[in-house]
Amino acid sequence: MKKYFTLMILAVLGGLFMMSCERTDTVLVEDNDTYPVMKDVTGTFTSGNNYTLNQSISIANSDVVLVYRNYNSNSGSSPVWQLVPKTYFLSGARELDYNFLFDASRVEIYTEANFDQATMSSDEKNAYLNNQTFRIVLVPASRTSKTANKVNYEDYNAVVKYYNLKEPK
């Protein structure tokens, strides 16, 4: 009887011990079907298009969109990418802003100014409005992580390196 009682106590204590154990296995899932994508869009901002360029995309609502402007558009020089939004301070206290909006199906890149953009000189239009090239970077939310906030998103090359992006053809 004493042996039976000892076994019962061990069984009860073992059951209590097992109930207090918590399983905390972490399952890592690699997402092989979504990956960062870059698209280039070139266009001219005019009053006819409300100083807006539109590009169709297809992303999940949780994904991230970054837009960069080729600072050297129209110069024939190598691209220099600047993160949008961006403000340029022109002569005469004029300000020109590049900005963008996006949803799951499109990116809208636009300019705004504290003056009538139609009054810009030919040189200014060539530098800021005509044949402007933008690079749209689509980053699936599954590719962002806790370390993504350490990326300097203003540095295009740092973003390309961090997300292992391939240049568009």
Automatic annotation (TrEMBL):
Alphabetical keyword list: Signal
Domain of life the protein comes from: Bacteria
Signal peptide boundaries: 1-24
Keyword Signal: yes
Protein name: Uncharacterized protein
